[in-house]
Amino acid sequence: DPVGPHSPAAPPAPVVLVTGAASGIGEATVRLYAERGHRVVALDVDRRGLEPLAALEGVAVLVGDVASEQSNAEAVALAVERFGRLDAAVLNAGIGGAGPLEAPGAVERFERLFAVNVRGVVLGLRAALPALRASGGGSVVATSSVSGLRGDPGTWGYNATKAAVINLVRAAAIDYAAEGIRVNAIAPGGTATAMTAAQVADPTFSRFITSRIPAQRWADAREQAEVVYFLTSPAASYVTGVTVPVDGGLSA
Ligand code: NAI
């Protein structure tokens, strides 16, 4: 078979970095890429959560913090050392929670939210861009949120970080488009993960949330991963600078 996978002409399987890989949307994304024959570097602060992923074919795991320049550099270096290149970076790690604006410690919590949710994306971009360029182009997908498109009660700091990601992606996309590097985001609506587990498990609260979603249900993490996959794929080769809502119609 001259065009089979072992032909010298076959392009190498794409190499993808996923942050926040140990749980939820990130974990579903790692599994989807691995199933489809991609090679993946999975970065997370949660060492135990990464263990099941380390057993997957073509997946290398790394314990690190996206708010650290060194962790981002190590993750990209691992992709290049282990798999020879980097084609995409899925900058997904994020944390929630802030508490009332006037509560003690609110400023410190806000600074940590920004360090993970915004600085983490900036550092991920800075680490990934030279490697994407060296691969002849590529793409980045950050995880924003419907909370970046609107206000919600009690999550002012989180909403600020997710709005920041949307415009960071727009501006960075302009800067790198001519080099064939695309920069996009997804804006998930309510998705059943560790982050939302308490809300999903509370029948009254869960019904309140889903009653406001046109699709009338929470998303599965896999439904987010599918859109991330599309955005990094050649099918999305002319898509850059956008944030795609994946929210069952919540932001419609
Ligand atoms: P999750 O809590 O299940 O997974 C987040 C992962 O990120 C965890 O494995 C955690 O250890 C990791 N992480 C946290 N801080 C980190 C750091 N500093 N460095 C490296 N890894 C770190 O949550 P989920 O829901 O999968 O969240 C993924 C992204 O999706 C987040 O950015 C979140 O804000 C966003 N999102 C989630 C929604 C939802 O309803 N679940 C809705 C909209 C956005």
From TrEMBL:
Keyword Thylakoid set for record: no
Gene3D superfamilies referenced in this protein's UniProt entry, alphabetically: NAD(P)-binding Rossmann-like Domain
Keywords on record: NAD, Oxidoreductase
Domain Ketoreductase: 14-203
The UniProt record lists the keyword Oxidoreductase: yes
Family: Belongs to the short-chain dehydrogenases/reductases (SDR) family.
Protein name: SDR family oxidoreductase
Organism: Kitasatospora nipponensis
